[in-house]
Amino acid sequence: MCSGGGGSDRYAAQARADEMARQERIKEGTRDVNSKFAGFDESFYAKRQQEYKNYAEPQLRDQLQNESSNLAFNLARSGLTDSSERSRNEGELQRQFSQGKADIASAAMDQSNQARQRTEQNRAELLAQLNATGDATSIGSQAINRAGMLASQQAFSPIGHMFSATTGLLGNAQRASYYDRNAPGMNAYTGIFRGNSGRSGSNASRIIKT
Fold it and tell me: H/E element holding 53?
């Protein structure tokens, strides 16, 4: 009489063979995913960090230039162009500028870390799908798409205003025109030193250099 064990053995052997083939596909797919993410190394994250600095620091310098112009206008309106107040307020602007640069450097590091986290999250998701499905071909295609998106330049948000009016002289000079229709406004402060001859006075306030 024949035993039914032969059929069970064949099924078990086939199951083992299928699982071995599946594990091999997973190994192959893992190598493929890792190769497609190989470009995300330390130099990539350092580049992303520098890209943010290149984006944000010019905005900070523009803000400093505007605040310096505002200060010069307010100093002139107050008759304090040559005074210790000018030095004190210019020093405060420079302090805030330095703090702004430090904040941007910190934000740039955050951008680098976030890029790293996105990369590792996407890699982990792909490998989890690969282990669940064993479909190395499909996962390989997804890896190409995701790596391409991660490598593309991410859009950065504009920085907020980095300077605060810690003194009245650091307030926005534009406000003067709201209350005094004869005020020259922010963009005309240098003209207040001009006499009838059109020559500029020697006491014009300097603009802080970046």
Answer: helix 42-77
Nearest to 48 by CA among 38, 39, 58: 39
Token pair belonging to 63: 């803000």
Instruction: Dump the DSSP string for 67-111.
Output: HHHHHHHHHHHTT-SSSHHHHHHHHHHHHHHHHHHHHHHHHHHHH
**Residue carrying the six token digits 């008759």:** 79
φ/ψ of 166, rounded to 5, equals -75, -15
Return d(Cα 123, Cα 40) in angstroms, integer.
11
Q: Are 200 and 194 in contact (CB under 8 A)?
A: yes
Q: What is the pLDDT along the chain (210 residues), one digit of tens a residue?
A: 455 556 788 888 888 888 898 999 999 999 999 999 999 999 999 999 999 999 999 999 999 999 999 999 988 988 878 888 899 999 999 999 999 999 999 999 999 999 999 999 999 999 999 999 999 999 999 999 999 999 997 889 999 999 988 878 887 544 444 334 444 443 433 333 333 333 333 344 444 555
Residue with tokens 């014009």: 204
Domain boundaries, the chain: 42-134+152-193
Quickly tell me which residue has 């005309």 as its tokens.
Answer: 188
Give the distance, in angstroms, between the CA of residue 155 and the centroid of all CA atoms in the same chain: 8
Whether this prediction's pTM lies above 0.70 is answered by yes
